[in-house]
Design goal:
The structure is a homotrimer.
Chain A (H helix, E strand, L loop, with lengths): L1 E10 L5 E4 L1 H11 L4 E7 L4 E6 L3 H14 L17 H10 L2 E7 L2 E2 L6 E6 L5 E10 L1
Antiparallel strand pairs in A: 1-8, 2-7, 3-5, 3-8, 4-7, 5-6
């Protein structure tokens, strides 16, 4: 069994943003040399997300509005977590979007459907954060 | 290490539906001959879901009403994604329900709790779609 | 390839509670002797959750209020599932929080970010329930 590990670093300039990280994850897979197995890609921070969806800017705008409706950023004082922090909403938004994705590796490629793209979802940016890529297989 | 891959195809006649796919996934596991490992089952489409819950029709009705409340289908024009599409709500509903499940394989069986059943959740049907089953182990 | 399996049992005295199970999962990993691989930790019940977030009591209070807003427990009769049951809300809450987490194992340790802690989320307690820990690797 082979295993591979890499951290991807991000420093988003805004509070919230979605970034298509499919090319970086593909690059990890090529480096690993693994042809059959499973790939885990997870946010290492609890106010960020890794998820799979469509790379369509209208949809990303819909996600932003929808997440603000389900878990509004303000007023900050509606959340007990926001004593010394202001990011309780980011913990909730990331819960909706998910922490991680698992991707099958088949014949040396990520076994994704036609529109599946991997995103880093930042909900409390303006600081350095990491995503973990771990691959096991042969 | 052994690995196994199969696509399950669906062509749902309605826009939304839940289908218990536990028997098909079990059949994949038997075909694989894998006795210890991990099984990934994921929707290959971004308006569909694979999730684990109870096979109880009242609950499925509750899910339908609840998802419509959290991410209503109409009016279509509330979503920017719905320029040439009408399925933005399906992307949001699938986000709530999840893309994938991971299942432990122990002594040749899916290691599920007493009420755990695997479902395909369709949120934008009337077309052919796929679910991926990938198993690795020994 | 090595594999390891253990059930963690819980009997929560209240309907809802979050418990940090990181020490128990760490103990499983030590017992397994696995140094490189993947760890699956999932609720075996469909009204409970395993998720990763912050171990901060204010945030846990925010989660409780937020989940009650998104999927209220009462009135029980708003849910069709609540014929002989009263726990439909627990199925919905667990859907938001998620069934499972996947954790990379690197050099014999759980490869978690600085604030990542693993929680058992109970949404229909006062009964015995189980969490599964499955680890595969070398």
């Amino acid at each position: 069994m082979k295993s591979y590990r890499k951290e991807l670093w991000f420093n988003i300039e805004t509070r919230r943003q979605f970034i298509n990280i499919t090319p970086q994850v593909n690059s990890c897979l090529r480096d690993s040399g693994i042809r059959e197995g499973l790939l885990l890609c997870n946010a290492m921070h609890i106010t960020a997300s890794v998820f799979i969806n469509d790379d369509e800017s209208g949809l990303h705008n819909d996600f932003e509005i929808w997440l603000e409706k389900l878990a509004p950023e303000k007023p900050y004082k509606q959340y007990r977590h926001n004593g010394f922090e202001d990011n309780a909403d980011a913990h909730l938004k990331r819960t909706i979007m998910g922490r991680e994705v698992m991707i099958a590796i088949t014949e040396g490629k990520m076994d994704l459907g036609p529109w599946e793209q991997i995103f880093y979802g930042e909900f409390d940016g303006k600081r350095k954060k990491r995503v973990l890529v771990k691959i096991i297989g042969e």
